[in-house]
From TrEMBL:
Keywords: Chromosome, Metal-binding, Methyltransferase, S-adenosyl-L-methionine, Transferase, Zinc
Protein biosynthesis in keyword set: no
GO terms, biological process: methylation
Annotated TM spans: none
Domain spans labelled SET: 7-119
Cellular component GO terms, alphabetical: chromosome
GO MF: metal ion binding; methyltransferase activity
Name used for this protein in its record: SET domain-containing protein
One Pfam family hit: SET
Highest taxon of the lineage: Bacteria
Intracellular or extracellular location(s): Chromosome
Source organism of the structure: Candidatus Spechtbacteria bacterium RIFCSPLOWO2_12_FULL_38_22
Amino acid sequence: MKSYLSHKTEKRKSKIDNSGWGLFAKEGIKKDEIVGIKAGHIIERQEFDKRGGFSSKTGEATLQIADDFFLGPLNSKEIEDIMMSVNHSCSPNIGFMGNIIVVAMRDIKKGEELATDYVMHINYPKFNMKCLCNQKGCRKVITGQDWQNKKLQKKYGKYFSSYLRNKF
Ligand SMILES: [Zn+2]
């Protein structure tokens, strides 16, 4: 089981997350081009909670695909193939088409790190993360309820995961 990543991308040491991996554009990527497609086990909310949510090692490699469903690895051996290594940024360049397909939100230049705003797929009250993206307008703290923020709904529009987009 493996997530799909475009041949135009590569995993390297992140510039956003100093201690971790990031996904980068190896060549130019056009607006709305597919960057990746998430693979994983379908995990129900109760099970995801029990496993420690987004703060567990497998949780970090998990994508929320509906209010009560998540897609991700179940053990540490599966993490590498399933993790897309996309970090959060308050000034993202990739978003969603549907729930599992990740696309460019604008033309992306060779060498840019690919990042999404976690608000576009997370609806999970317990989620809370300090943001170190350093971008203009950084929210500093990212929560699992930010998707309700009208400004962000307007800013990202169709690039929200469709299960969230359908709520506003
Ligand atoms: Zn930020």
